[in-house]
From TrEMBL:
<protein>
    <recommendedName>
        <fullName>fumarylacetoacetase</fullName>
        <ecNumber>3.7.1.2</ecNumber>
    </recommendedName>
</protein>
<feature type="binding site">
    <location>
        <position position="136"/>
    </location>
    <ligand>
        <name>substrate</name>
    </ligand>
</feature>
<dbReference type="InterPro" id="IPR015377">
    <property type="entry name" value="Fumarylacetoacetase_N"/>
</dbReference>
<feature type="binding site">
    <location>
        <position position="228"/>
    </location>
    <ligand>
        <name>Mg(2+)</name>
    </ligand>
</feature>
<dbReference type="InterPro" id="IPR011234">
    <property type="entry name" value="Fumarylacetoacetase-like_C"/>
</dbReference>
<keyword id="KW-0828">Tyrosine catabolism</keyword>
<keyword id="KW-0106">Calcium</keyword>
<feature type="binding site">
    <location>
        <position position="252"/>
    </location>
    <ligand>
        <name>Mg(2+)</name>
    </ligand>
</feature>
<feature type="binding site">
    <location>
        <position position="228"/>
    </location>
    <ligand>
        <name>Ca(2+)</name>
    </ligand>
</feature>
<keyword id="KW-0378">Hydrolase</keyword>
<keyword id="KW-0479">Metal-binding</keyword>
<comment type="pathway">
    <text>Amino-acid degradation; L-phenylalanine degradation; acetoacetate and fumarate from L-phenylalanine: step 6/6.</text>
</comment>
<feature type="domain" description="Fumarylacetoacetase-like C-terminal">
    <location>
        <begin position="119"/>
        <end position="394"/>
    </location>
</feature>
<feature type="binding site">
    <location>
        <position position="122"/>
    </location>
    <ligand>
        <name>substrate</name>
    </ligand>
</feature>
<feature type="binding site">
    <location>
        <position position="341"/>
    </location>
    <ligand>
        <name>substrate</name>
    </ligand>
</feature>
<feature type="binding site">
    <location>
        <position position="239"/>
    </location>
    <ligand>
        <name>substrate</name>
    </ligand>
</feature>
<dbReference type="InterPro" id="IPR036663">
    <property type="entry name" value="Fumarylacetoacetase_C_sf"/>
</dbReference>
């Protein structure tokens, strides 16, 4: 009986169960948003299922966003996941739950939580070195002096985080090539992607109290794929000395499905060997492995251009959380932080066009023509999977975005 009998090997089997928010696309159907859990190519209306089974979690799940579940905390997250796993695997529940499953093709997926603060990091050593070589070719070290001592990050714009499938309007702004005498204004001609993983905070923290490394799982609910769209020409002219601003803030896309950390226990790996001693609040030598073995794939118009391995990230999500709160800054439910562009050591593993084309020098050959940066009409899709229990794969929700032409001011 579909959808219970998910094919063997499906990356969205009962071992995964990511959370999202959906509504029925049919205008004659009930239009309200509800929390959904993905199983194969169906979504379970989690609130309706909880009511039908008389579950105590109906209050957390019969909601238009994930916000109440995010705020409920680690014990509730584990309990709800255990309950959901039983619902979709125990045959006795099949008849009760069948009416509450909807094919993915019948639903519209929405941004699943209210994004509070948004922070983006810069945690891939390969990415940082590539960018250093491209923009500071004369520097003695392609890494800045602070890079191995702290996870570099900046505060982004949470209000422009959008769900997968949302079109991205090409941004306009100022740019000035080094040889030009004055800046010009116009649509970005170096529109790029950054393939990243986003971490979603559930449990808030108190202002003035740093969150230690070991408390990561108590605060972070799960993760998603994230595309940090970047206008390289706007960014290059504006970023000195305060960092990214309009070159990034026009849009950030996230997947519609949030994968709970509990689904990724088999994907945890040790991060790369630390080459510099770490200050105690970042020293994770005695902590559980902080990396994740996520295999990301980047496609432009359906053609795979890169396969960045997340396991190569130097700084872990736990270290990033500890660093962003070490000054006493508090966490709020719905805070989102990006890992930074994921780039592996080889050319086919780079997570941005900036690196893949070496700042436009080496065009990519796609079936529909050459590409240095994105053209109007290009659609970028990020997908990923991680090792799951017993040789299974845990699929992450895809992030898709189509570039539409600039709008004149
Ligand atoms: Ca980024």
């Amino acid at each position: 009986m579909p959808p219970f009998d998910v094919p063997e090997g499906d990356p969205f089997g009962p071992h995964n169960l990511p959370y999202g928010v959906f509504s029925l696309t049919d205008p004659a159907g009930a239009p309200e948003r509800r929390v959904g859990v993905r199983l194969g190519d169906h979504v379970l209306d989690a609130g309706a299922a909880a009511h039908a089974l008389g579950s105590p979690y109906a209050g957390l799940l019969a909601q238009p966003t994930l916000d109440p579940l995010l705020a409920a905390g680690r014990t509730a997250w584990s309990d709800v996941r255990r309950a959901l796993t039983a619902w979709v695997t125990v045959p006795a529940h099949r008849e009760t739950l069948a009416p509450h499953f909807h094919p993915l093709s019948d639903v519209t997926l929405h941004l699943p939580f209210t994004v509070a603060d948004y922070v983006d990091f810069y945690a891939s050593e390969n990415h940082a070195r590539n960018v250093g070589q491209i923009f500071r070719p004369d520097a003695a070290d392609s890494l800045t002096p602070n890079w191995k001592h702290l996870p570099i990050g900046y505060h982004g714009r949470s209000g422009t985080v959008v769900v997968s499938g949302t079109d991205v309007v090409r941004p306009s702004g100022q740019r000035k090539a080094p040889a030009d005498t004055a800046p010009v204004f116009g649509p970005s001609i170096r529109l790029d992607i950054e393939a990243e993983v986003g971490f979603v905070v559930g449990t808030p923290s108190e202002q003035g109290r740093p969150v230690p490394l070991g408390d990561y799982r108590d605060h972070v609910f799960g993760l998603c794929l994230l595309n940090d769209w970047s206008a390289r020409d706007i960014q290059a002219w504006e970023y000195v000395p305060l960092g990214p601003f309009l070159g990034k803030s026009f849009a950030t896309s996230v997947s519609a499905w949030i994968t709970p950390l509990d689904a990724l226990d088999d994907a945890r790996v040790a991060p790369p060997v630390r080459t510099h001693p770490l200050l105690p609040y970042l020293d994770d030598a005695s902590e559980e492995p902080g990396g994740y073995d996520l295999r990301i794939s980047v496609a432009i118009n359906g053609h795979v251009v890169s396969e960045p391995p997340f396991s190569t990230m130097y700084w872990t999500a736990a270290q990033q959380l500890a660093h962003m709160t070490v000054n006493g800054a508090s966490l709020r439910t719905g805070d989102l932080y990006g890992s930074g562009t994921v780039s592996g050591a080889s050319e086919g593993e780079r997570g941005s066009l900036l690196e893949l084309t070496w700042n436009g020098r080496d065009a990519l050959e796609l079936p529909d023509g050459k590409r240095t940066f994105l053209e109007d009409g290009d659609e970028v899709t990020l997908t990923a999977w991680a090792p799951g229990p017993g040789g299974t794969r845990v699929g992450l929700g895809e992030v898709r975005g189509l570039i539409t032409p600039a709008v004149s001011p």
